[in-house]
């Protein structure tokens, strides 16, 4: 299986996801330090129009541990973007320098548009409030490694309106027939268009505003921060900031096998005391981004 562009989880089948997850497991020893020259001679370009830590650095780590090189657009303010260069022209140019491009952009749909102008694979690292497919794949891999994707009961908590990670994840979970509980304040509920799509795929969805009520019935608690940067009105953000907080005391109601995930960065939605509990998996989750992105890069560059 080779990949052209990685834009949205809606573009993948269940079987294709399983292949990627299997390949990621093969790459895990290399992610932990085993030497490889699989991508020697290959160049990855990273174009981040928005801030990033884990996504950018895990892509760079994945590429370098596989023996490849990375070129970085750097600060948007110091690039030709500041002179008014269009995304289409930037993609056309960078495609002449690299074998694949990782793109993060604040405008929803930007990655799919970029793919129309690119002569090399585009890997969507987040397009506004749209999709974040490589995050979803590492989330699925985390669940596979730390819990199980079979008969999964999962709660998605927090900003389900603007959170692109949960948008992508929900589409993927529907392929695994997961039982999903959506927990958010009413003003941050999952968009109706996404819920409609999920129900068409036969997904089991329950909505609530109360996190405590479901802790005894779920295998995975997927927590997200409230996306302050997406709010058009700061006053509206203040109304919901800090509305959900996972504490060690709260987890007394949880099942023994519960795992807690978070795409990070976190603000105050998970108390640091939770880090020391058996439930926390968000730092392991951030590591799993490396083998998953290794698999994606190798498949996109048609070497494995």
TrEMBL record:
Annotated catalysed reactions: carbamoyl phosphate + L-aspartate = N-carbamoyl-L-aspartate + phosphate + H(+)
Pfam families listed in its UniProt record: OTCace, OTCace_N
InterPro entries: Asp/Orn_carbamoyltranf_P-bd, Asp/Orn_carbamoylTrfase, Asp/Orn_carbamoylTrfase_sf, Asp_carbamoyltransf, Asp_carbamoyltransf_Asp/Orn-bd
Gene Ontology annotations for the cellular component aspect, listed alphabetically: cytosol
Molecular-function GO terms, alphabetical: amino acid binding; aspartate carbamoyltransferase activity
Binding sites annotated in the UniProt record for carbamoyl phosphate: 54-55, 104, 132, 135, 264-265
EC identifiers of the protein: 2.1.3.2
Pathway participation: Pyrimidine metabolism; UMP biosynthesis via de novo pathway; (S)-dihydroorotate from bicarbonate: step 2/3
Keyword Transmembrane helix attached: no
Residues the record lists as binding L-aspartate: 83, 164, 225
Ranges where the Aspartate/ornithine carbamoyltransferase carbamoyl-P binding domain occurs: 4-144
Keywords: Pyrimidine biosynthesis, Transferase
Residue span, Aspartate/ornithine carbamoyltransferase Asp/Orn-binding domain: 151-299
Function (record text): Catalyzes the condensation of carbamoyl phosphate and aspartate to form carbamoyl aspartate and inorganic phosphate, the committed step in the de novo pyrimidine nucleotide biosynthesis pathway.
Family the UniProt entry places it in: Belongs to the aspartate/ornithine carbamoyltransferase superfamily. ATCase family.
Self-association state and partner proteins as the record states: Heterooligomer of catalytic and regulatory chains.
The protein's name: Aspartate carbamoyltransferase
Species this protein is from: Candidatus Methanoperedens nitratireducens
Gene designation per UniProt: pyrB
